[in-house]
Amino acid sequence: MQEYQIRVVNEKKELDEKCNQLERFFDTTLFKSLPEDEQGRLVRQLSHMRVYSKILAERIGNFKDDGVEEEKPAAAPEPVEHIMQFFKYAHLPPHLAEISKPFSDMAHDIVKKLPRNPERTVALRKLLESKDAAVRAFIAK
């Protein structure tokens, strides 16, 4: 492997570790205490980092074999679903969080159990619409 190729492989490993650290940060109370707009920026940042990692993986996959057996980089984990930010409820007053929580739980189950494809996206979008309707029904006068 040429020197620049080794640098690319190392860069991808470091980037993937940073992605994993940021994703773990999303489950902390510190992250949940951040303003919603900052949480959104971090979610977008992770999404872009995952895209960058996939590009590096493509480059590594196209390196010419120079006869030296090398370890293939692990596939990058799936990017975070953009729509999931709208299922957060920790910032809501308790009476609205109670309405939103079951929808958030179901959204997380969908992402965990179903393959990423257009139908999963539709399921999440319709669930979000249902959650919004339920909240509006609760606060309607």
Kindly summarize this structure in a few lines.
The protein is mostly helical and 141 residues long.
Care to describe what's here?
The protein has 141 residues and is mainly α. It has 2 domains: 1-79, no CATH class; 81-141, no CATH class. It contains 5 helices and no strands. The chain has helices at residues 3-25, 29-33, 36-61, 94-113, 118-139. Helix 1 (3-25) runs antiparallel to helix 3 (36-61) and helix 4 (94-113) runs antiparallel to helix 5. The longest helix is centred in the middle third of the chain and has 26 residues, at 36-61.
Mean pLDDT: 88
What overall form do the CA principal axes indicate?
elongated
Number of E strands: 0
Q: Which structural class fits the helix and strand makeup?
A: mainly alpha
β-strand percent reads: under 5%
Cα radius of gyration in angstroms = 19 Å
Distance between the termini: 68 Å
State the main characteristics:
141 residues; mainly alpha; 2 domains; single chain
Which helices and strands appear, and what pairs or packs with what?
Elements: H1 3-25, H2 29-33, H3 36-61, H4 94-113, H5 118-139
Helix pairs in contact: 1-3, 4-5
